[in-house]
Every structure is written in structure tokens, then in C-alpha cells.
């Protein structure tokens, strides 16, 4: 149970945080067969309150299931599945596929992602790794010397897609409906269209130059040669057809069949617009790479923080290990405020850079041990520590803090370019969704095609972009770096879908996009919630800062206004980042009451919905 040291009394919030709902469900066991009502066809009568809601709202409270995504169509897709008796996994796949339609620059069937799933019946947390992989022909030097921006828009950066295999595995293991059924809401949105909002328009405009360099991409996303105007209806009938065929033939169509052949052909020979001067490097992907792809179940990371169990994503993501280590460091400190938040994050990123990647022997257990965290916490003093923070030594033999602790007390661990390497660039966009159902199952799901617009290349006639996930590898040369490319290797991710349990029951689930700032956004929301006394909506809305073992901390203007002077006086320095993250979350308020939360304004605001709204 949660014991003590909260800045806010949570006892009331947590009392009776049962996953069994008073209303409206009576069932307490997840269904083991498909819902009787097919997901295609007319919807069942809407629950009186909350049905037909077309306004995007960032906070929703109620019962019987909840969803939060960046997008109303995607949230509604999930809600539709929940209302028809589907569970959280069914709804999450439906929402993810719909995001592939409405957020095609952040998500899609040719991308990848990570699912953290709480199974209410078994009271267990599972994860599914749907990360893209490098082709067999990729080696440690394949990206060396290539300018980052050139790699982004190339066939070379496209990893073997993971999302479809992940959806199939998730549905088979934990879902109740078929892939075909889960794709129906997305097919409908792709056919009927969605309303172009400012975010979609701006993202298209920001990508217009490179989209114009590919015939297939220009045709789809620059109709008439320009980004679709705000307020217009955007239809993607080719994607609707791709999803329909995927539903009919299953993932085999991608991993061993015709769609795979088209993906490989596009990767190896991108459809460059005649006259374009862009140097587009072809990729190394072959059909055998697609055939070898597997979505993988992995044990989650787990740490205990103030009596709660925090579950996250293990390597190849650094999300679980880095959020977890930082929380452990914070727990070892007598007081936690924004200074401590930044310093703990700095230290955890130093360790992430040195130890975490898709390699054997990541010292995960030690990185997440209290002993290691206590040793690292000794380095946090009154002032910001010198840059860069060196990585620690997670070897199981930990020293107590020297008498005068703080950064000046540790001259024996000097920073070096090798040990204190800056975090390499990662794309700032992807997406995250949370869903929970009437049985108390919970999904936190990060989906990505890496950069906004992926590699910029639409597979001709199929309506979706390819990913550029392989730019998440370290380009090198970087001897000893765990994140160098390799055959069949998965690039290190920062995605951090996170589920927090209290006494074995879900309390909170959250995540965000934002490349390596994902980790700090998740961490900061937890610090806001548990240490700074904010409600979950406040914790998401609060201004953000991100310290990733860089000389300067990036911060939003609101953060600088609130904390800038105080932190600068303690040795921190800042650069402005106009917007960090776009989080989604759900909190279990007790007695079956749910609070779904999205961003009120970042990236145009998100959409929170509940099955039965509280009155
Ligand atoms: N590629 C990033 C990662 O896996 C996520 C995409 C983003 O938000 O930039 O960490």
C-alpha cells in the first residue's frame, strides 16, 4: 500500500480503488470469446450520457472504461469497441489503427511501438515489443558518415514494420476480437474522412518540401500541390482498402505476401519525383527480413516508488529503465522538487547512454536497484552538477554517500567525452494512447513512425508512410555504444508507456510522444502528481522541462516563468523549447471511477472519453 511522504494526501483518492466497477458492468471476468455484436455495421444504441459527443475534451470522468488519445476520431474508435463489449486491448488496436488514418505522420501500419498491458483477471503486467528492426544486411557502420537529415528521408532508415505483428499478437494473447474487426473503425474514418485541423495542416506544411519529392506522397498529402486546408475533409480510400485487405489476409500479407513485396520495392527504389535533386539513399530491406520479424512479449521493468509499483518497457526501449532509475534516485532523496527532478533525470540519462540498447547483458536489474539509485543520489547537491554527468557503475557494490555529499564530493568520477556523451538526436513526434475497460484491464501504448512524417515515403497506392525508425540508432563511429546498428537489431527507443499499480491494482497509466523527452515527460508528470501535489489534469497541463544530460535544460516558457530564476541561481541554464510532449493518461479514482486525461493545449489538445460519464 501507499505509505507516506506524499505532498498531497492521497488516501481518499486511493481508498477502494477497486477495478471492479459499480456501474454499468456487472461482468467481472474478461470475455473469452468475440463480442456478439459485430464491429462493422450500425452502432448499438448509445448510452444516453456521452453518446455522440463530437467535442474534443481533455478530461473526462466516469465509469465502465475510458480512453485518452491525441485525437477525437481515435478516442471514439476505442469507445465504440468498448461499448460493443470489446476489452482494452481490442480498443487500443482500433484506436491505433485509426491514428494511422488521422495522425498518419506519427503512427501507422508501417511503424512500430510498445504496449504495456495490465491484465485484470490475472493481475499481471505484460509488455509487447513491436519495435521496428534493422534488416540483416545492416551493420555497425551502415549509417556512419551519413548526415542525419539525409538519413531521415531515405529508404535506408526504414525498419521492418512492427505494428501489424504487434496488433495480431496483442489481439491473439489478450484481445477478444479479430484484426479484421479491430480495423473496422479505422476503415470507416479512412473512407468517410476526417476534418483537417491546424496540427495536421501544419505538420503537412512543415513536410511539404520532402513530401513533394516523392510522387506517391505528394499525391496523397499534397492534393493540388498544397497541404489540405484546415476544415477540409481528408479521405484516404487507399488506406481504407489496405486495411480491408489486411483484415482479410492478416499480417501474412505484409510479412510474407504482396504488401511486403511492395514495401520492399519502395524501400529499395523510392518513388522520387522526376527532377527532384534530393539524394535519396535506398534501403537494405529484403523479404526475408519481413519474414523474420516477430513482435515479442517481454517482461516489464518494475520499480517500487513510495509503495507503488511502476511498470514500464524494457529494452530495446530505454523508457522503463530510465524513468525507473530516476524515480529510484528521487526516492532516495529527502526532498523532491524541480531541481531534484532535473538532476535525477540527468543522471539516469547518463546511464541510459552507456548501458541501454538492444544488446545482451544490459544491467537492468542493477540499473533499477535501490542500491545503485542511492549511490547515484549522492551526486545530487544544492547546485546543478557539472556537465556532463558521467555514468555510474551498476555493479552491485555500492558505496554510502561520502560525508559531504553533492557533486563537488565526487571528483573521482570525472566526465569524459566517452562516458558523458550527449543524447543523440531523436525525432520529436509520435503518439501515445491509454485505454481501460469495464473489467479493469489497462493498455498504455506508444506508437511511432519516428519523425513527423516518417521517412516521407508513401508506399504507392497503399495510403501509408514508411518509418525512419533506424535513425534512432547511434550513427557512429562510437566504439562500445550499445545502440550502434546491427543485423536484425532494434534501435533503442525512449518510449515509456507506464502503468502504476497500488497493491496490485491499477492506479495510473500514462505516456507521451517526444523522442527522448518522452522519458522526462512521463517522469515529470509523476513528480507533479506525487511530489508537487497536482491533480492528474494539472500534472499534464503544467509547463515542462527536460534534462537529458545536456549542458542546458530545455524548458517551456511557462516553466521558465515559474522556476527559471530559482533554478538559474542554483546553476541550471536553459534553452527554450516551445512545446514538450503530448501526454495521455488515466487515473483510477476508486470505486470504479475513472479520470481520463489528455493535453489541454499542446499539439492542439487531446481527446479523453469515458464509456459512462459521471454526472
Ligand atoms: N523514435 C522515438 C523513440 O522510439 C519515438 C518517436 C518520437 O517521439 O520521436 O524513442
Q: Which kinds of small molecule does this entry bind, naming each only once?
A: glutamic acid
Q: Ends: how far apart? A: 30 Å
Report the count of strand segments.
18
* Broad structural category: alpha+beta
The low-confidence parts are 1-53, 406-421
Backbone shape: globular
For the residues shown, what is the average pLDDT?
90
- What is the overall number of helices? 19
Instruction: Report Rg.
Output: 23 Å
- Determine the fraction of residues in helical runs and give it as a percent range: 25-40%
Oligomer: single chain
Strand content: 15-25%
Largest sheet: 13 strands, antiparallel
Protein name: Gamma-glutamyltranspeptidase
Pfam families: G_glu_transpept
Biased composition (Low complexity): 402-431
Keywords: Hydrolase, Signal, Transferase, Zymogen
What does this structure look like?
Helix content is 31%, strand content 16%. It is an alpha+beta fold and 615 residues long. Strands 1, 2, 3, 6, 7, 8, 9, 10, 11, 12, 16, 17 and 18 form a 13-stranded antiparallel β-sheet that branches. A hairpin with a 6-residue loop joins β13 and β14. α2 runs antiparallel to α3, α3 packs parallel to α6 and α13 crosses α14. The N terminus is likely disordered. It binds glutamic acid. The site of glutamic acid has 16 residues, from loops. This is Gamma-glutamyltranspeptidase. One of its GO terms (molecular function) is hydrolase activity. InterPro entries: GGT_bact, GGT_lsub, GGT_ssub_C, Ntn_hydrolases_N. Belongs to the gamma-glutamyltransferase family. Keywords: Hydrolase, Signal, Transferase, Zymogen.
Amino acid at each position: 500500500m501507499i505509505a507516506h511522504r506524499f505532498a498531497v494526501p492521497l488516501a481518499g483518492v486511493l481508498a477502494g480503488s477497486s477495478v471492479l466497477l459499480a456501474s454499468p458492468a456487472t461482468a467481472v471476468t474478461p470475455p473469452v470469446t468475440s463480442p456478439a455484436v459485430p464491429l462493422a455495421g450500425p452502432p448499438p444504441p448509445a448510452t444516453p450520457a456521452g453518446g455522440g459527443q463530437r467535442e474534443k475534451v481533455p478530461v473526462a470522468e466516469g465509469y465502465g472504461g475510458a480512453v485518452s488519445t491525441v485525437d477525437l476520431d481515435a478516442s471514439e474508435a476505442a469507445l465504440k469497441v468498448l461499448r460493443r463489449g470489446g476489452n482494452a486491448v481490442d480498443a487500443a488496436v482500433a484506436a491505433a489503427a485509426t491514428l494511422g488514418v488521422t495522425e498518419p505522420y506519427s503512427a501507422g501500419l508501417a511503424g512500430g511501438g510498445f504496449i504495456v498491458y495490465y491484465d485484470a483477471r490475472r493481475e499481471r503486467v505484460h509488455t509487447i515489443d513491436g519495435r521496428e528492426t534493422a534488416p540483416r544486411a545492416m551493420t555497425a557502420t551502415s549509417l556512419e558518415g551519413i548526415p542525419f537529415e539525409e538519413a531521415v528521408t531515405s529508404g535506408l532508415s526504414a525498419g521492418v514494420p512492427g505494428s501489424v505483428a504487434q496488433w495480431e499478437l496483442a489481439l491473439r494473447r489478450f484481445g477478444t476480437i479479430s484484426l479484421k474487426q479491430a480495423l473496422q473503425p479505422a476503415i470507416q474514418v479512412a473512407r468517410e474522412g476526417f476534418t483537417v485541423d491546424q496540427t495536421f495542416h501544419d505538420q503537412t506544411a512543415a513536410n511539404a518540401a520532402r513530401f513533394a519529392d516523392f510522387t506517391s506522397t505528394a499525391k496523397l498529402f499534397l492534393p493540388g500541390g498544397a497541404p489540405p486546408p484546415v476544415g477540409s475533409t481528408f479521405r484516404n480510400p487507399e488506406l481504407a482498402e489496405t486495411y480491408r485487405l489486411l483484415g482479410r489476409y492478416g499480417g501474412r500479407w505484409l510479412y510474407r505476401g504482396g504488401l511486403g513485396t511492395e514495401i520492399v520495392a519502395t524501400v529499395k527504389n523510392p518513388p522520387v519525383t522526376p527532377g527532384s535533386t534530393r539524394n535519396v539513399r535506398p534501403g537494405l530491406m529484403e523479404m526475408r527480413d519481413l519474414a523474420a520479424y516477430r513482435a515479442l512479449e517481454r517482461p516489464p521493468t518494475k520499480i517500487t516508488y513510495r509503495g507503488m509499483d511502476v511498470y514500464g518497457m524494457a529494452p530495446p526501449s530505454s523508457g522503463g529503465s530510465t524513468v525507473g532509475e530516476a524515480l529510484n534516485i528521487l526516492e532516495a532523496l529527502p526532498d523532491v522538487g524541480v531541481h531534484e527532478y532535473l538532476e535525477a533525470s540527468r543522471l539516469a540519462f547518463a546511464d541510459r547512454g552507456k548501458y541501454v540498447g538492444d544488446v545482451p547483458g544490459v544491467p537492468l536489474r542493477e540499473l533499477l536497484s535501490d542500491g545503485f539509485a542511492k549511490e547515484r543520489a549522492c551526486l545530487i547537491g544544492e547546485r546543478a552538477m557539472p556537465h556532463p554527468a558521467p555514468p555510474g557503475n551498476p555493479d552491485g557494490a555500492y558505496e554510502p554517500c561520502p560525508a559531504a555529499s553533492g557533486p563537488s564530493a565526487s571528483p573521482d568520477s570525472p566526465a569524459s567525452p566517452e562516458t558523458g556523451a550527449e543524447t543523440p538526436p531523436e525525432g520529436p513526434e509520435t503518439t501515445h494512447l491509454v485505454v481501460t475497460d469495464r473489467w479493469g484491464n489497462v493498455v498504455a501504448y506508444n506508437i511511432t513512425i519516428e519523425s513527423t512524417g516518417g521517412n516521407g515515403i508513401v508506399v504507392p497506392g497503399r495510403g501509408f508512410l514508411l518509418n525512419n525508425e533506424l535513425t534512432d540508432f547511434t550513427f557512429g563511429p562510437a566504439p562500445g555504444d550499445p545502440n550502434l546498428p546491427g543485423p536484425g537489431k532494434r534501435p533503442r527507443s525512449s518510449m515509456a508507456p507506464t502503468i502504476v499499480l497500488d497493491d496490485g491494482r491499477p492506479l495510473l497509466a500514462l505516456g507521451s510522444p517526444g523522442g527522448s523527452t518522452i522519458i522526462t515527460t512521463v517522469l515529470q508528470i509523476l513528480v507533479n502528481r506525487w511530489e508537487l501535489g497536482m491533480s492528474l489534469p494539472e500534472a499534464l497541463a503544467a509547463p515542462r522541462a527536460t534534462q537529458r544530460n545536456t549542458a542546458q535544460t530545455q524548458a517551456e516558457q511557462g516553466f521558465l516563468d515559474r522556476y527559471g530564476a530559482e533554478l538559474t541561481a542554483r546553476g541550471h541554464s536553459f534553452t527554450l523549447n516551445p512545446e514538450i510532449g503530448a501526454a495521455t493518461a488515466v487515473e483510477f479514482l476508486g470505486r470504479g471511477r475513472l479520470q481520463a486525461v489528455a493535453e489541454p493545449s499542446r499539439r492542439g489538445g487531446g481527446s479523453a472519453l469515458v464509456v459512462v460519464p459521471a454526472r
